[in-house]
Amino acid sequence: MSTTHTPVGLKIPLRNLHLAPSKESVHHWFGGDPVGTAVMNALSLTFPDGEKLFIDAVRHFRGAAEGELVEQIRGFIQQESVHAREHETLNRLIDRQRYPGADVISALTRERTNQARERGPMTMLLATIALEHFTAIMADQLLQEDTLSGKVPEDIARLWRWHAVEETEHKAVAFDVYEAVTRDWSGWRRYRLRSLTMLLVSIRFTRHITDYACLLLEDDGYSKREALRAVRRHLWSNPGLFRRGWRTWLAWFKPGFHPWAIATPRAFAAWKAEFDALAG
Ligand SMILES: [Fe+2]
Ligand SMILES: [Fe+2]
To answer: Is residue 151 scored above 70 in pLDDT?
Structure first.
């Protein structure tokens, strides 16, 4: 059982924002860097189907929830629906003539989420808690280091910042659902299953994002070898999108881990206020 818990009274609000950027902003939007752009676009292309899977996983088990978690599940579903919608809009702005790989990525993501669906709701929920940990790690980095401001068109930066704020807000919802559903299991069984899932999901997720970003870079004229080298450098060395969150990733394997045991970045409150105001 976790020793930390979701803060009492935590609200997960629906902010029905339309934040998709203008078409002019999207080409090599990551500071003019094709590699960073390919990585972020690869992530964005996996979000709509991924987020729909998370929604269905959590929705399936919502009967097991009690107290504030019931409302938080509602907020989670609403937030992820709006994320899927806004990333779909962003993804549509990627020029398919130039980047035919984008459609391949969407099709592969659909196929892979369907495979998870075929394995049933518990597999879906396990995949969700692991991937929500990944998104929380990336959101943390974005909030903590403000990696986008100054080098990215403001409309795109705002979309990712808003997503990061909401991922932080709802980071424990699926986890709390897992705890509620498995409350009659032994601690060891719960721990073993979520840890094994994290190992498996980490291998698959990092490999898929690497492959997807390479596809987009090849559309940019990189050779297969150049693309792989550049993407690996971006993810694991400089800036190290996946490497930098290793401490938080590792924290998952602590018995009694809970997502709220990870400190919230300082910038969170100010950015949350910005989006609360925007949502009116
Ligand atoms: Fe999301
Ligand atoms: Fe999420």
So the answer is: yes
